[in-house]
Amino acid sequence: MLNNITRDLADHDLRGQVADYIPQLAQVSPQHFGISVATPEGALYSAGDVSQPFSIQSISKVFALTLALGKRGDGIWEYVGREPSGDPFNSIVQLEHESGKPRNPFINAGALAVVDAIMMGHEPKEVLAEILSFIRFLSDDASIYFDHEVAASELEHKHRNASLAHFMKSFGKLQHDVDKILGTYSHQCALAMNCEQLARAGLFLVSDGINQVSGSRVVSAQRARRINSLMMMCGHYDGSGEFAYRVGLPGKSGVGGGILAIAPGKGSIAVWSPGLDTVGNSLLGTKALEMFTQNTGWSVF
Ligand code: DON
């Protein structure tokens, strides 16, 4: 079935626009397409460009939130809310009326607050080492790396995120140095992974917090359900309602064109197609997931 989806989408002319506000991402061909499905039984089904690493960007916010919950527990909700924003991923408007507290951990402002919560007085290098070893543990793959060129490219054009961070800092909402938070955040977003690695990294959210393949408990069952609920409500920003309507799964997108979707009890699905729709989510990636859930009945509804 994955081969059929890949073949059907190969001829699609309408692939959306590759993100160009991070110049390094603009160099990626929109022709790529890959899809991988990992199951708790240890099967991995793949079609298309599934071995080529891509920039996971905002998908990393799921893993950063998981780490932050481990360190801070429910204290994280003092830093960031858990409501959908209905605004673009890099919007500043709500911060002014809501005392600098971001609506949720997946918009950029919220992800910056999560990084601040993870840092706990440590230097960016140490925090990044922890993020990297966590993601390697989740996907059981030590070859995952930070693409430093992508991080540098984002940092050169960091004005919007820097504005968000300084604005939050002005409300006393960030504890650490803004440049250190931005540097850490940009590297976290510049994690390079392929579809197979990403599908495996999502397995703990499929099985109540346990990665059944490695046998490791990552989070409690309750926490896994809550992370999934946040992905469902906020994982696609102002496109979250549309994604829930069409795909019916918790999902998280990134401007590198990846999407991680979780079918609780069934499997973890990673897709990659770099062209984005108007709100910054992978256009063909969403289409592929819509076809996939229609064929498998794997929607949560
Ligand atoms: O901060 C940014 O703008 C990027 N590093 C991440 C944004 C992103 O992936 C939004 N997702 N669709």
Automatic annotation (TrEMBL):
Enzyme Commission code: 3.5.1.2
Reactions listed under catalytic activity: L-glutamine + H2O = L-glutamate + NH4(+)
GO MF terms held by the record: glutaminase activity
InterPro entries in the record: Beta-lactam/transpept-like (IPR012338), Glutaminase (IPR015868)
Residues binding substrate, per UniProt: 58, 108, 154, 161, 185, 237, 255
Keywords: Acetylation, Hydrolase
Pfam families, alphabetized: Glutaminase
N-terminal signal peptide: none
PANTHER family named among the record's database cross-references: GLUTAMINASE
Subunit record text: Homotetramer.
Protein name according to UniProt: Glutaminase
Provenance organism: Natronospira proteinivora
Name of encoding gene: glsA
